[in-house]
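Reopening this ticket.

The earlier resolution said the output was attached, but the attachment link was broken on my side. Pasting everything inline this time so it's all in one place.
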Amino acid sequence: MAKFERHIFICTNQRPADAPRGCCDANGLGELQLAFKKELTARGLKDRMRANKAGCLDQCEQGPTVVVYPEGVWYAGVKTEDVAEIVQSHLIEGHPVTRLLMADNESADA
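Inline output:
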């Protein structure tokens, strides 16, 4: 049996400010991952779900990028303000946040 019901991988890759592909963690602080960890803890989910840093997920132009497993749902352009909505709608209620889905996301029931 898996230890966690879901894993949330948050791209924390950094590139120079002038990089043509952009960068998911431009400020280098990992704020998005910290926001997920805080939200999971606040809702009593930290023992069931895990928010991990990820290296480059190769979706730089659509970043900040987040992917949720085991469903394989990809989110694009995620901001710290979106975290509570993703946790409530997707992780608790089972409904991916449609407005944040990556354009070619085929795994989500949108």
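Reporter confirms the inline version is readable. The longest helix spans residues 31-42. The radius of gyration is 13 Å.
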